[in-house]
Structure formats: C-alpha cells, structure tokens
C-alpha cells in the first residue's frame, strides 16, 4: 500500500498531536507515513521510537527551511531518515527555533497592544509540544477569543500577510538553501525538494537537479500546479530521482485543509528512500 510522506503535528505548526496521526493514515488504507515537522528533531525522534504504530510504518523526517537569496524566496526540503545525533542538524534546528520564537514573540507583543483581550501566554499554550510559537498558534488564540472566524482568514493576512505586508509580521533570517542541503547531507538524510509551486521554485529545482544536489522531488502535492507537476515528473524520470507525494497535512491550521492521504507516494519510491537511507548509514 502507498504512503503519505508529508505531514505536520503539534510538534511544529499542525493542530493534531503526533500520536494521533498514524491512525488517520491507517483509516484511509495507508501503511506508511512520514511525520515531517518544521526544523525540528521531535518528529524524527518520535518515528525512530515508534517505527510502527496502529499498523502504519513511520518514517523519521523533518521539513527543513532554507532561503534562495538569488530569487528572494523560501525553500522547503524534506529530509527522510536523518541521524538525530547529527551535530549540524541539531544546530540548524536550534537556530531556527530561537529565530522563530523571537519573531513570533515580538508579533504577539504588538498584537497585545491592538487587542486588549489577547495575551501572549494564551498563544504559548499552543506551543507546549513544539517549544516554538508559530503564527498559527497566535491565530488559534485569537480565534478562541472570538476575534476571527478561523486561522488563515482576513485577519491573518492583515497581521501576517506577505503582499501587502502584515502589520505585525517579523520574519526570521533563514539560512541559504545550499547550506541547509549540506546540513541534511551531513545528517545522512535522503533529501526531497518539497512542493516547488508553493514558493515558485522551479528555476532552483532545475539548478539543483543538474548539480545532483537533491535525491528527489515532491511531485504530488495539493498546491503544485499541473505544469510544475509534469515538469517535475519528467525531471525525476530523466535524472533517476525519487518521485514522492504528500498531503502536507496540518489539520485545522491550513487555509485549505487537506486530509491525510490526499497525495501519496508509491511503494517502489518508498523502497528507494529506505534503500538509499540504509546505504548512507552504512557509509
């Protein structure tokens, strides 16, 4: 049976606790799931500690964030089977945790001045599992207070939007994408470029593929355009790359929620990830 290789829990910015995700996969007939929370080892360690849960095989993963400074946009890289003891990976996660917290705490302080009902402590309740305050946690608190009717609504865009820029948006400094790739490789991970359409990343994908810098591309994703999917599939075929799919599940913390299993990865591609990860561990 196929697997869903892109999912988020309360270990980052998802709304569902990590221990509940495998059963969701089992109920839709999947036998493999990767839990890939943002820039953290929490999901990695959980899946190493629980290799099978509710009849579902769990793949340790993390979604690492980098930045393409040439084109001025973020980049997400799915790192499967990384070594949780990797010094470089631990440093990356520590840096991103600190930077994200600083930005969101500053945003929360500014929101306190805008909405007297809101207190930062309430938003921090949603960060207990992750140890990181995310914008979605702030929005959950605002929603609970009746100040908005959802997470990614007009208020979110007013506060945190990109264009026009939100009035309390503070963005962390991201590491250059090639530095993040080096971090993932130092951790022995199998690296797949995530959802190229989301950040208009096809020019970068073409570069990295030609340089042999990535192991695969997330072709099947709810937000990939048909044109990008077709090109990514062709690149995977031409260069022998791994072809993956994932729902990018965030539970309620998503503008257009996608259930677990919305996009999937075939058994043969999952086997390729596991074989490559095993080869790298032997080295």
TrEMBL record:
Protein name from the UniProt record: Phosphatase
Pfam families: PHP
Molecular function (Gene Ontology), one example: 5'-3' RNA exonuclease activity
Polymerase/histidinol phosphatase N-terminal domain segment(s): 3-68
Organism of provenance: Faecalibacterium prausnitzii
UniProt xrefs under InterPro entries: PHP_dom (IPR004013), PHP_domain (IPR052018), Pol/His_phosphatase_N (IPR003141), Pol/histidinol_Pase-like (IPR016195)
SMART domains in the cross-refs: POLIIIAc
Residue spans crossing the bilayer: none
């Amino acid at each position: 049976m196929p697997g869903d290789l892109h999912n988020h829990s309360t270990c980052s910015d998802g709304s569902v606790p990590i221990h509940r995700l495998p059963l969701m996969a089992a109920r839709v007939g999947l036998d493999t799931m990767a839990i890939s929370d943002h820039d953290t080892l929490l999901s990695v360690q959980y899946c190493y500690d629980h290799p099978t849960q509710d009849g579902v095989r769990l793949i340790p993963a993390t979604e690492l964030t980098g930045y393409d400074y040439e084109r001025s946009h973020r980049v997400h890289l799915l790192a499967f089977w990384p070594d949780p003891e990797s010094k470089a990976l631990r440093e990356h996660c520590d840096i991103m945790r600190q930077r994200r917290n600083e930005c969101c705490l500053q945003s929360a302080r500014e929101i306190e001045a805008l909405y007297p009902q809101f207190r930062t402590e309430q938003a921090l309740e949603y960060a207990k599992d992750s140890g990181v305050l995310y914008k979605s946690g702030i929005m959950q608190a605002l929603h609970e207070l009746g100040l908005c009717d959802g997470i990614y609504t007009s208020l979110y865009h007013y506060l945190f939007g990109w264009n026009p820029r939100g009035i309390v948006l503070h963005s962390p400094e991201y590491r250059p994408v090639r530095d993040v790739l080096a971090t993932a490789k130092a951790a022995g991970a199998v690296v797949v470029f995530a959802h190229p359409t989301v950040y208009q990343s096809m020019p970068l994908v073409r570069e990295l593929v030609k340089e042999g810098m990535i192991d695969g591309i997330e072709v099947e994703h709810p937000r990939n355009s048909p044109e990008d999917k077709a090109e990514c599939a062709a690149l995977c075929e031409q260069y022998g790359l791994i072809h993956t799919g994932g729902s990018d599940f965030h539970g309620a913390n998503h503008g257009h929620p996608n259930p677990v299993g919305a996009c999937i990865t075939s058994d043969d591609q999952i086997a390729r990830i596991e074989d490559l990860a095993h080869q790298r561990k032997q080295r």
